[in-house]
Recover the amino acids of this structure.
């Protein structure tokens, strides 16, 4: 995936069980010049892709067909793959572990997603060892 900077050319995993939201995310990411993996609409697909997939970052819905996706976030964190949460969860309902993770709320998704990705991509450092990875800039 090279030593590119910014979003164009990056591969993004979509974990989203709503076909409409998943299609909108994919369309916007493609317009931003990204490659898309998924969407994964079931926990089984999401777990497999999270553990074995080849991608730079992920967009994760926290509620996949009634199951909470916190185990997916742990896998992504262990693999040092950053993610953007796509969720309507209120701050008080988020586990402390993930309360500071960047997120967008699907209600205004179509109007704000590309700006939010650009804003959050500045919070990442692009690092690599053989291939670039997106890593949180703390």
């Amino acid at each position: 995936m090279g030593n590119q900077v910014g979003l164009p050319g990056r591969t993004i995993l979509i974990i989203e069980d709503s076909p409409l939201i998943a299609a909108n995310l994919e369309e916007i990411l493609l317009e931003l010049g990204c490659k898309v993996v998924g969407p994964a609409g079931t926990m089984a697909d999401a777990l497999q892709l999270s553990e074995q997939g080849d991608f730079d970052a992920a967009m994760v819905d926290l509620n996949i067909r009634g199951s909470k996706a916190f185990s997916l976030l742990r896998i992504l964190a262990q693999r040092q793959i950053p993610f953007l949460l796509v969720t309507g969860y209120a701050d008080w309902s988020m586990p402390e572990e993930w309360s500071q993770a960047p997120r967008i709320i699907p209600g205004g998704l179509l109007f704000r997603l590309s700006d939010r990705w650009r804003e959050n991509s500045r919070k990442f450092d692009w690092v690599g060892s053989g291939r670039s990875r997106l890593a949180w800039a703390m």
In short: Confidence is low (pLDDT under 50) at residues 126-138.
